[in-house]
Amino acid sequence: MDPRRFDVHRPHPWHGVPVGPQAEAGAVPDILYAYVEITPFSTIKYEVDKVTGYLKVDRPQRSNSLPPYAYGFVPRTWCKGRVAGIAGRDVGGVSRGDGDPLDICVVSERAIDRSDILLGCRAVGGLLMVDNGEADDKIIAVLDRDPIWGDVRELSELPNALVDRLRHYFLTYKFDPRSGVQPVSIDAIYGAERAREVVAAAMADYAEGFPG
Question: Quick one: fold of 6-209?
Answer without folding.
Answer: Inorganic Pyrophosphatase (3.90.80)
